[in-house]
Design brief:
Structural class: alpha+beta
Order of helices and strands: HHEEE
Number of helices: 2
Largest sheet: 3 strands, antiparallel
Shape: rod-shaped
Number of domains: 1
Number of strands: 3
Length: 105
């Protein structure tokens, strides 16, 4: 009986560790996509192109969806990218990250 309890606890801990690893990976993907999208959008704004359209394309290519894009004076660009993650079967969550980029002053 004690062996069964120990095995059950180990299983629950393993499932929790896998869920945490999946969430951390999704957060990393979202942050990388947001960083790259912000840089590309800032460059697009400098070049007179649509910064938010460029940001959406770059986020998508990097495995994320663009949730927010705001062009600030300067022109700095703030973007938020998100990634859907299934840490445990039957449970879907969203990992989001924000980044800001603009010209060097």
């Amino acid at each position: 009986m004690l062996l069964l309890a120990v095995i059950s606890v180990a299983f629950v801990l393993a499932v929790g560790a896998v869920a945490l690893a999946r969430a951390a990976d999704a957060r990393g993907v979202a942050q990388a996509a947001a960083d790259l999208a912000a840089i590309a959008a800032a460059q697009a704004a400098q070049d007179g192109r649509d910064p938010c359209g460029v940001a959406a394309s770059v986020a998508l290519v990097n495995g994320a969806a663009l949730q927010r894009c705001e062009v600030l004076p300067g022109p700095d660009v703030v973007v938020t990218a998100s990634v859907l993650v299934n840490p445990i079967a039957g449970w879907t969550a969203t990992a989001s990250a924000q980044a800001r980029a603009g010209p060097v002053r």
